[in-house]
Design brief:
With 315 residues, this protein is of the alpha/beta class. It is built from eleven helices and eight strands. The longest helix has 15 residues. The radius of gyration is 19 Å and the shape is globular.
């Protein structure tokens, strides 16, 4: 496996693309170009969680797909820390919207540029995210062909097209979120997250609508896989349901799985990503296998019926 951390901008250390490229040069090399999954960890737009990075990438690599982890623009600028939520934070121009979603576009273009060397099938690249990273992925799913990205990069929309999207415990509707009752700590968290992402604690309804993927789904939104837990106390499960509803309204293929139990931020929900026993959940961990089955409908490797050795043995 070729693993490398790449700076996407020469003047920034915080926005990076880490490769998990299957680099087998033996018999498996005959499988040809492989689909890929671009992973966006969560972290409330404060940081990018390591728990939702490499453990997830290794799951997709085990399915036979190249994997890439994008550490996109967040408030901590790569320091892997949360701000003091008891104090009002100051916005940062270079890390707020639309920087995070444009970072996905930058990563897609970088992968495309190196697709031949890495044997990537650019017609089958999925974007996968968790929590804020799922929101960022969902934003990309509805804006990939918009001037927000195409004009900014000066490219045709087809250069940026994702083949599929996987959203874990996503936030999809800021208008809805505004009306959700929150305790004191959650109120402080989301006020700070809004400042980190949008530059202000209480954005206008127009701005909130703009950054609500569920309110901006079109027929060009790619097929989507959603999963969440009904017990999520931070990002209510209604966000996944609202995204599914919007996809259904626009006849976009989707699959959704809601598990009864489990806290927010489960990642792969096994020891591979857990920091405590609360992060383990055997039921929710099934999302990986379910996503594998769903992806295989679109990303199945182009394999012959029999290997050359098998054919030789039959002769």
């Amino acid at each position: 496996m070729l693993t490398e951390e790449i700076k996407l901008y020469p003047d920034r250390e915080d926005v990076t693309l880490t490769t998990y490229v299957i680099a087998e040069k033996g018999e498996l090399h005959a499988q040809g170009n492989r689909p890929a999954v671009l992973i966006c960890p969560g972290g409330g737009y404060f940081n990018c969680s390591d728990r939702e990075a490499e453990p997830v990438a290794l799951k997709f690599a085990s399915m036979g797909y190249h994997a890439f982890v994008l550490r996109y623009s967040t408030y901590d600028e790569g320091k892997n820390q949360f701000p003091d939520l008891t104090r009002q934070i100051e916005p940062k121009e270079k890390t707020k919207h639309p920087a995070p979603v444009r970072d996905i576009g930058k990563a897609m273009l970088y992968i495309r540029e190196h697709a031949k060397a890495w044997s990537v099938d650019m017609g089958r690249v999925a974007v996968c995210g968790f929590s804020a990273g799922a929101h960022n992925s969902a934003m990309y799913s509805v804006y990939w062909n918009s001037p927000l990205l195409t004009e900014f990069f000066g490219v045709d929309a087809e250069m940026l097209r994702p083949a599929a999207v996987i959203l874990g415990y996503t936030l999809s509707d800021y208008i809805f979120m505004k009306g959700v009752k929150k305790n004191e700590m959650d109120t402080a968290f989301f006020a700070a997250s809004n400042t980190a992402f949008l530059g202000e604690a209480n954005p206008s309804e127009e701005k909130l609508r703009e950054v609500s993927p569920a309110l901006n789904v079109t027929e060009n939104t790619p097929p989507t896989f959603l999963w969440a837990t009904a017990a999520d106390g931070m990002v209510p499960v209604q966000h996944s349901l609202r995204m599914a509803h919007a996809l259904a309204d626009h006849k976009v293929p989707f699959e959704i799985h809601i598990f009864e139990e489990g806290d927010h931020g489960l990642s792969v929900a096994t020891q591979a990503s857990a920091m405590s026993r609360t992060m383990l959940n055997q039921d929710a961990a099934k999302w990986v296998g379910l996503a594998e089955c769903w992806l295989e409908k679109r990303f199945a490797l182009d394999l012959p019926q029999k290997t050359a050795f098998e054919q030789m043995m039959e002769r």
